[in-house]
Design a protein that fits this description.
The complex is a heterodimer of chains A (about 140) and B (about 110). Chain A is an alpha+beta fold. Chain A has one domain: Heat Shock Protein 90, CATH 3.30.565.10. Chain A is built from 3 helices and 5 strands; from the N terminus they run βααββαββ. Chain A has a 5-stranded antiparallel sheet with strand order 1-2-3-5-4, with helices on one face. Chain A starts with a strand and ends with a strand. The model of chain A has no long low-confidence stretch (mean pLDDT about 95). Chain B has a single domain, classed as Transcription Regulator spoIIAA (2-Layer Sandwich), CATH 3.30.750.24. Chain B has a 5-stranded mixed sheet with strand order 1-2-3-4-5. The chains are: A alpha+beta (about 140), B alpha/beta (about 110). At the A-B interface, α2 and α3 of A face α2 and α3 of B.
Chain lengths: ~140, ~110
């Protein structure tokens, strides 16, 4: 079921807006505060990737946000209109030689905080990221 | 709220009290500028108090690492105190617990520079 969707400018304000939208949806869906925080943080990291690395702050490119739910999961899809990239080309941020690098930890945090993470080319160009967080079993 | 940073001196140690959010943009930039200014002034012993920091993203973490590297290259040290559980979790996930010295108590942190 679709909860909400938005087409956002390639700005840091959009990062804040998307984070707030998803955290609100996560709260309504029944996630506890710590889980809302984790979901919000994963979305922030994805949005930064889309705005900064994908669309490179272009005024002509948008970020596409979809928030959906299934029976026990919140599903968030974030798409950019950038040139795309190869996930395997990214250095391992946990390798000893990379531990003091300033950047490159975003995907590590996304994977740590979400139950499922998938990245693929977006139809029409760009990159699409799909994030899934399941409600904990009571 | 973006980050608010206040520097104070306890002996020869500079304590930076940070409050708010350290995220890409204004928050991370302010943090980077303060660490660079302190390093340029010759402050070599810096204890970063994150007790009032509610949120830090990968850019904020990157600025902490960059500050650590800058100070170390100038013969200084950057240590952390007052970490919330969420920030401790971030340091665990990123393995930066192996890089930073972390203290719960300010007095312990200050003594560690002696």
């Amino acid at each position: 079921m679709n909860i909400s969707q938005a087409t956002l400018d390639s700005t840091l304000q959009s990062v804040d807006d998307a984070e707030a939208m998803v955290m609100s949806a996560a709260k309504d869906f029944g996630f506890e505060e710590d889980e809302q925080h984790e979901i919000g943080m994963a979305v922030r990291e994805c949005m930064v990737n889309a705005v900064v690395h994908g669309n490179r702050y272009s005024k002509n490119k948008k970020v596409h946000l979809d928030i959906d739910s299934s029976r026990d999961s919140l599903v968030i899809v974030i798409g950019d209109e950038g040139a795309g990239f190869d996930l395997n080309s990214l250095p391992d941020p946990l390798a000893a030689e990379n531990i003091l690098r300033q950047s490159g930890r975003g995907l590590l945090l996304i994977r740590a905080f979400m139950d499922d993470f998938d990245l693929h080319p977006r139809p029409g160009g760009g990159t699409e990221v799909r994030l899934v967080k399941k409600l904990p079993k009571k | 709220m973006s980050v608010k940073l206040t520097a104070r001196h306890v002996g020869d140690v500079t304590v930076i009290d940070a409050a708010g959010r350290i995220t890409l943009g204004e928050g991370a930039s302010a943090f980077r500028d303060m660490l660079r200014d302190l390093a340029a002034k010759g402050d070599k012993k810096i204890l970063l108090n994150l007790g009032e920091v509610s949120y830090i993203d990968s850019s904020g973490i990157g600025e902490m690492v960059s500050g650590f590297t800058t100070l170390t290259n100038h013969g200084g040290q950057l240590k952390l105190m007052g970490l919330s559980k969420r920030i401790k979790d971030l340091l665990q996930i990123t393995k930066l617990y192996t890089v930073f010295e972390v203290f719960d108590d300010e007095a312990d942190g200050i003594r560690s520079f002696a």
